[in-house]
Amino acid sequence: MDSYLVCYDISDPKRLRKVARTCEDFGYRKQLSVFLVRVSSTAIVRLRTRLYDIINRDEDQVLFIPLTESALQRMEAIGRATDAHDKHDAAITM
Amino acid sequence: MSATTDPIPVRALNQVTYCPRLYYLQYVDCVMPVNEHVEGGLFDHRRVDSGDLKNKTRTDRGTATSRGVALSSEVLGISGVLDVIEEKNGEQYPVETKHGKAPHDDDGKPTVWDNDAVQLCAQALLMEEAFGQPVPRGYQFHAGSRERVPLEFTDALRQKTRAAITRCRELQVLDAPPEPLPAELRHRCFGCSLASVCQPEEILYQIGHPNPADVDTSSAKTPPDVRLVIPKSDNGAVLYLQEPGSSVGKRSEHLVIKKDGKEMNRVPLHAVRQVVVCGNVQVSTQALETMAENEIGVSYVTGHGRFIGSFVPAPAKNVSLREAQFRKFSDPAASLELSKAVVRAKLANQRTLLMRTLRGEEEARGSHEPAAKGMYGLLAGLDRLTSVESVLGTEGQGAALYFGEFKRFLKQPPTGKGFDFTTRNRRPPRDPVNAVLSFAYAMLAKDCFAAVCTVGFDPYKGFFHQGRHGKPSFALDLMEEFRPVIADSVVLTLINNELLAPADFIIWRDACNLTDAGRKAFFAAYEQRKCTEVTHPVYGYRMSYARMLEVQARMLAAFVRGEIPTYTGFMVR
Ligand code: SF4
């Protein structure tokens, strides 16, 4: 399983909605345009492919920041509370 | 339609040249996991596959390009969709795009892999028949290195291509896949999308070592030189839906969980590999459909953990395996051998757990425990047994010895505060320890059910738990060797590390059950346990317990089909 921080900057509201919705299929929303994606290497290719098809390659940008396990463990937030990030690893109970 | 007259896709000719076993698994057994090599391929093919370009011809500086042209030939018995056909100066030629970089020959010139060459040549044969015009050469475009490499369709290559077609036809009528690739070609397995299904190293190892592991698990064994080809852990989380009264819907490909009209949470489906619906939770049809499409299995269990059933995404279409399963499990000798193998592993694992847990009390190793000695005796006698019934008897005696000491496995807090355990009881369990044991076995049964279904077995036809009406006997057979190491171990962790307290149970009319909070603690510990990596005693490399379930199920499949001479149960070292 690989972890990425996926952030985007989209200049058109319609594309923005599509990008957000696609990211929600793969990861957990951390901030308005920041997602934590923890998926297989196959799924990350799938996500990249889908976003590539949505964005305007001249105006928009999506960043994929690979996270090592130790970087992930050291992630911290100040201000509003955030979900523990390693909680979703093995079991998610709702 | 009989298999032998269906046209063979040109892609399959690529596979059969790469590895005949790969072709068999993919096109005869019809299993198709996708790994990142294949996904990457999709990314590069985008321009060709996008529908609006299909079958349109464009002309640019004297070169006419047609994309996505479907051709088929009855004479050759093959068909395919050609990425690109170009025409220049009256000459037509196929152009195929491949993910990855071009290989280089001894002079450093880019070339084409032999399997890709066969695929391209098959396309040329199709074109020659369809257009009645010779096709002397084609091009392979390597997206990774952006190199366009010409390829001559020589007589030798044409012959090789026809031989690949014949080979496919031969393989189609076999009952079991051909052997994995020999050692000198093994490097191909590392890029193979089916390595986790094929288990090449393990199969070859078993073929070369027909004797079952000896009884004495404490003796030092040198691990064999089995290289790790398959991934060692599973990807994604297991999602447990248990909030009473909640409803689960889908939006795009994520789940939205609501209760009393309020959104509670969202879960991305691509981060999930399995879903367990526990108790009173409504899952919408649309959500189920999406899960099936994404190959996420859904299991339903009651609030007490009783397994109700599962919704398996398009079960493996593996009819020949099922036929072999029914044949093999109806054969008393084979059933006896398999029963001994799983009971041997179960007893050995129970004994190991017992010795490890009780080691602290007496200074010596736990092997001096009378129960451990008794179990050793049972293990030693196992080989002499001649019927499945007597194996069942031995298993029962082992369980009695083991559960007779189980009370001592539990940390003993001041009286009245902790958990009491006197005997194993079930249906219904009457005390907390039995309740959590029953729950753990139910969860493990659910996972074994999923594992045997993934491989393509019928979960109801077993070899050991025969004829128990309505029980998924085969899933329970596979489960035996894992009961102590997964289920019992989770129970001990939960109780001894005080992750469960007496308040996490409710007792009602003699039946004891976990509360919602108790179940939540259980699920977390259980999945954690399944992520734990252990060394496979035969193959000597590490993998997660979750993965181990599937590996053992696949080895059973190889045994059932006669690919390997014996099955060896999983035993902790
Ligand atoms: S893992 Fe190796 S032997 Fe198995 S199908 Fe793939 S290439 Fe063939």
TrEMBL record, chain A:
Matching Gene3D superfamilies: 3.30.70.240
Pfam families: CRISPR_Cas2
A single GO BP: maintenance of CRISPR repeat elements
Cofactor(s) this protein cannot do without: Mg(2+)
Keywords, comma-separated and alphabetical: Antiviral defense, Endonuclease, Hydrolase, Magnesium, Metal-binding, Nuclease
UniProt-listed Enzyme Commission number(s): 3.1.-.-
tRNA processing in keyword set: no
InterPro entries on file: CRISPR_associated_Cas2, Virulence_VapD/CRISPR_Cas2
Positions annotated to bind Mg(2+): 9
Molecular-function GO terms, alphabetical: hydrolase activity; metal ion binding; RNA endonuclease activity
Assembly mode: Homodimer, forms a heterotetramer with a Cas1 homodimer.
Cited NCBIfam families: cas2
Function description: CRISPR (clustered regularly interspaced short palindromic repeat), is an adaptive immune system that provides protection against mobile genetic elements (viruses, transposable elements and conjugative plasmids). CRISPR clusters contain sequences complementary to antecedent mobile elements and target invading nucleic acids. CRISPR clusters are transcribed and processed into CRISPR RNA (crRNA). Functions as a ssRNA-specific endoribonuclease. Involved in the integration of spacer DNA into the CRISPR cassette.
Protein family membership: Belongs to the CRISPR-associated endoribonuclease Cas2 protein family.
Name this polypeptide is given: CRISPR-associated endoribonuclease Cas2
Organism field: Frigoriglobus tundricola
From TrEMBL, chain B:
NCBIfam families cross-referenced by the UniProt entry: cas1, cas4
Pfam families: Cas_Cas1, Cas_Cas4
Ligand binding (Mn(2+)): 395, 465, 480
Organism this protein belongs to: Frigoriglobus tundricola
Signal peptide: none
Catalytic activity: exonucleolytic cleavage in the 5'- to 3'-direction to yield nucleoside 3'-phosphates
HAMAP family in alphabetical order: Cas1
Quaternary data: Homodimer, forms a heterotetramer with a Cas2 homodimer.
Bias (Basic and acidic residues): 46-61
Cofactor dependency: Mg(2+); Mn(2+)
Designated name of the protein: CRISPR-associated endonuclease Cas1
Keyword DNA-binding annotated: yes
Domain annotation DUF83: ranges: 13-199
GO terms, molecular function: DNA binding; endonuclease activity; exonuclease activity; iron-sulfur cluster binding; metal ion binding
Primary gene name: cas1
Main enzyme class: hydrolase
